[in-house]
Write a structure and sequence with these properties.
The protein has about 210 residues and is of the alpha+beta class. The protein folds into two domains: about 5-95 and about 195-205, Ribosomal Protein S4 Delta 41, Chain A, domain 1 (Orthogonal Bundle); about 100-185, Structural Genomics Hypothetical 15.5 Kd Protein In mrcA-pckA Intergenic Region, Chain A, CATH 3.10.290.10. It is about 45% helix and about 10% strand. The chain has a five-stranded antiparallel sheet with strand order 2-1-3-5-4. The N and C termini lie far apart (about 50 Å).
């Protein structure tokens, strides 16, 4: 008998399957577009989705953008739900103020995955102290800097040179000479510019 060459095998040979583990800079829109399609080889043919399916898809988008597991995501949602204000907007604010995301927004890293590794490995300091917790929440006035090691400084400078055309988020400021970033204010939903309907996520968790 010959080797099996079913549709899935032929598809994988023609084009690689992108799991978005190594997203390029500013890949939020690409991830969102990929997740618009329902799962499965016939996903593109499906035209109707249930309310639950739409809500679930928005949650998966947000999880994938920030690189969170389900349990981590639920922790942030519960925190957002306990805060005063609009739960969906609170959720985005909490995710944006994660230290690994701030490192990404300050252009120290090309992807959030890389920024998470930098924090984990002790390459980032907050107010002069090394922080190794990616989910650490920054506050207004916090100063974020790469650790004053020659290799770390060289790495950050190299990254920033390749990303010099990308602006820093409005709620942050960056001194490109000293490489120090400062949290000027808390971010809003508009600052995040995410292709996600967070209200659908709130509806999902409210059931």
């Amino acid at each position: 008998m010959g080797r099996y060459t079913g549709p899935a095998v032929r598809l994988s040979r023609r084009e690689g399957v992108n799991l978005y583990l190594k997203g390029s800079r500013r890949s939020d829109d690409k991830i969102a577009k990929r997740l618009e399609l329902p799962p499965g080889m016939h996903g593109a043919r499906r035209k109707k989705s249930s309310d639950y399916g739409l809500q679930l898809r928005e949650k998966q988008k947000l999880k994938r953008i920030y690189g969170l597991l389900e349990r981590q995501f639920r922790v942030f949602f519960n925190r957002a739900n306990r805060k005063q204000g609009v739960t969906g907007e609170n959720l985005i604010q909490l995710l944006e103020t994660r230290l690994d995301n701030v490192v990404y927004r300050l252009l120290y890293a090309q992807t959030r995955r890389e920024s998470r590794q930098m924090v984990n490995h002790g390459h980032i300091q907050v107010n002069g102290k090394t922080v190794t917790i990616p989910s650490y929440s920054v506050k207004v006035g916090d100063v974020i800097t790469p650790k004053s090691k020659e290799a770390t400084i060289a790495r950050v400078k190299a990254r920033m040179e390749t990303l010099e055309d990308f602006p820093v988020s409005d709620w942050l400021s960056l001194d490109r000479k000293s490489l120090a970033g400062t949290v000027m204010r808390l971010p809003t939903k508009a600052d995040a510019q995410l292709p996600v309907e967070e209200s659908l996520i709130v509806e999902l968790f409210s059931k």
